[in-house]
């Protein structure tokens, strides 16, 4: 349900950004709003508090954001609060940011390796991804997981390419288990 809410509202904000031809502006504002809410957990707590009426939440939202973000973003935040979806605000804004990145052909890649990669290796991986995908740029996220033994695991969206030794050993084990001795 929460995923449906974030998708519905996130797409609505994306359509608004396209309609008013302000994709970059609303993208920057969405990131700023997420950062403000992340840096001020008491503000999010206030928005989600069941004993505070919507009118007071709307007043606080306007005092914090009005004049600092566009009328479109303020209006959007107002709708989210009026509909009682403020507890999903981070997920909604995350979905919107993802939609904008997809629209601008910016991929987000998560690369896990068994050992730290050199800058040259990281650059080679990014270049290979640019050549083999529809994306024109990538946000690269690298991490190390020694349990992979060797190789890489690359995740872009729901697609995963697993060339790790760990997964190959697992597949080999499955195949060996199928063989009947006798």
From TrEMBL:
One of its GO terms (molecular function) is proton-transporting ATP synthase activity, rotational mechanism. Its main location: membrane. It is found in: Cell membrane; Membrane. InterPro entries: ATP_synth_OSCP/delta_N_sf (IPR026015), ATPase_OSCP/dsu (IPR000711). It comes from the Bacteria. The keyword Protease does not apply. Gene3D superfamilies: N-terminal domain of the delta subunit of the F1F0-ATP synthase. One of its GO terms (cellular component) is plasma membrane. Belongs to the ATPase delta chain family. This protein is part of the stalk that links CF(0) to CF(1). It either transmits conformational changes from CF(0) to CF(1) or is implicated in proton conduction. This is ATP synthase subunit delta. It comes from Qiania dongpingensis.
């Amino acid at each position: 349900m929460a995923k449906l809410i974030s998708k519905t509202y996130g797409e609505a904000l994306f359509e608004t950004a396209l309609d008013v031809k302000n994709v970059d502006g609303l993208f920057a504002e969405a990131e700023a709003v997420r950062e403000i809410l992340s840096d001020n957990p008491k503000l999010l707590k206030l928005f989600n508090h069941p004993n505070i009426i919507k009118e007071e939440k709307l007043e606080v939202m306007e005092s914090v954001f009005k004049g600092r973000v566009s009328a479109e973003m303020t209006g959007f935040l107002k709708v989210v609060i009026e509909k009682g979806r403020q507890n999903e605000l981070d997920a909604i804004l995350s979905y919107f940011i993802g939609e904008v990145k997809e629209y601008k052909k910016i991929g987000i890649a998560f690369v896990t390796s068994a050992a730290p990669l050199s800058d040259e290796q990281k650059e080679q991986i990014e270049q290979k991804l640019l050549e083999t995908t529809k994306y024109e740029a990538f946000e690269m996220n690298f991490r190390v997981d020694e349990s992979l033994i060797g190789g890489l695991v690359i995740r872009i969206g729901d697609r995963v390419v697993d060339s790790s030794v760990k997964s190959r050993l697992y597949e080999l084990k499955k195949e060996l288990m199928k063989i009947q001795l006798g």
